[in-house]
């Protein structure tokens, strides 16, 4: 609100403040109606989706006022079987994944251990995907997305098998929900039916790889963007939907607000969100966060920050 230092009030208009202000004018305090839908087709064990987290987070944070965000489970791995699963990348057995994941983690600086794919491999991405869908059905998209984030942290950075029942229950419990009940329901027929609805939508959208972002307008015309891309790539796609208009970014929330909301942020996420150089990260964190409000930790030679 603009501060008014004038103590003079106009006798005729009855206004204490700028005399030129209109006596009556129409205003609209509602946010503009979002007529654009963004579909993020993904999978809990998609390593490139994990690498995309910093960019996607910033894109949602700064441009989310333009679109409704929908997460769609794509079904990356139903089960391992005899023969190659991904012949293009030389992946036939779970152990082949470990080196591939580590390479992506080192390149993206979103840490990936990967050794569990040798010792205790994820046999299918369907169980955690079904849990996602049940949370989404009975709670909301935001809570389901939080589960997806926590599952990926557990799998990639902290080397937990997120398809194991006990791990899924703990992840859901940590959201303040009933892990036993939700995981049990996800194992029943309805959990698979919900998942197959997402598979059908992904097929309708023409998705064949992850991550894929599809932005469509009211006329169901849009743009499909495949792979882990720079922020400008996604902004350009949004611009196409806006008929060439340059999207106006919102200011990112403060680091203290973001860490309090997310609970955990990796160094790369902070650097991307606030355009901070790695060499300046520690000074930036100390300037933005109150001592005692966070703890700095390290995993796989990458720093991360958790709220206290």
Shape: globular
Terminal Cα span = 34 Å
Residue-averaged pLDDT, rounded?
Answer: 91
Structural class: alpha+beta
Task: Tally the helices.
Answer: 12
Q: What's the arrangement of strands in the largest beta sheet?
A: 2-1-3-4
Radius of gyration: 23 Å
Under the CATH scheme, the architecture of the largest domain is: 3-Layer(aba) Sandwich
Describe the structure.
It is globular, with a radius of gyration of 23 Å. The protein is built from twelve helices and seven strands. Helices cover 44% and strands 13% of the residues. The protein starts with 35 loop residues before the first strand and ends with a strand. The chain folds into two domains: 36-204, Glutaredoxin (3-Layer(aba) Sandwich); 255-307, Arc Repressor Mutant, subunit A, CATH 1.10.10. The chain is α+β, with helices and mostly antiparallel strands and 308 residues long. The model is unreliable at 1-7 (pLDDT under 50).
Summarize the structure.
By secondary structure, this protein is an alpha+beta fold. It is built from 12 helices and 7 strands.
């Amino acid at each position: 609100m603009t501060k008014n230092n004038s103590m003079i009030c106009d006798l005729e208009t009855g206004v204490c403040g700028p005399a030129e202000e209109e006596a009556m004018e129409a205003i609209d305090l509602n946010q503009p109606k979002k007529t654009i839908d963004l579909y993020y087709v993904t999978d809990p064990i998609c390593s490139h989706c994990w690498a995309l987290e910093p960019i996607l987070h910033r894109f949602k944070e700064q441009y989310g006022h333009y679109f409704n965000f929908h997460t769609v489970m794509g079904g990356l791995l139903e089960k391992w079987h005899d023969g190659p699963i991904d012949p293009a990348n030389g992946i036939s057995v779970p152990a082949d994944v470990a080196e591939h994941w580590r390479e992506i983690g080192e390149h993206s600086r979103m840490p990936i251990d990967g050794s569990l794919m040798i010792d205790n491999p994820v046999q299918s991405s369907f169980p955690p995907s079904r849990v996602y869908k049940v949370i989404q059905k009975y709670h909301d998209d935001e809570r389901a997305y939080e589960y997806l984030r926590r599952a990926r942290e557990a799998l990639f950075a902290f080397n937990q098998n997120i398809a194991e029942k006990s791990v899924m229950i703990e992840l859901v419990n940590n959201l303040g929900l009933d892990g036993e009940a939700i995981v049990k329901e996800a194992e029943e027929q309805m959990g698979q039916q919900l998942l197959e609805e997402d598979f059908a939508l992904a097929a309708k959208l023409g998705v064949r790889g992850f991550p894929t972002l599809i932005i469509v307008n009211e006329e169901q015309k849009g743009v499909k963007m495949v792979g882990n891309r720079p922020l400008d790539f996604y902004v350009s796609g949004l611009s196409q939907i806006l008929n060439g208009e340059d999207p106006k970014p919102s200011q990112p929330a403060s680091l203290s607000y973001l860490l309090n909301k997310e609970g955990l942020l990796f160094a790369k996420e902070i650097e991307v969100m606030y355009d901070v150089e790695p060499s300046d990260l520690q000074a930036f964190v100390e300037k933005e966060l109150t001592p005692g409000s966070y703890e700095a930790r390290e995993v796989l030679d990458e720093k991360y920050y958790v709220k206290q």
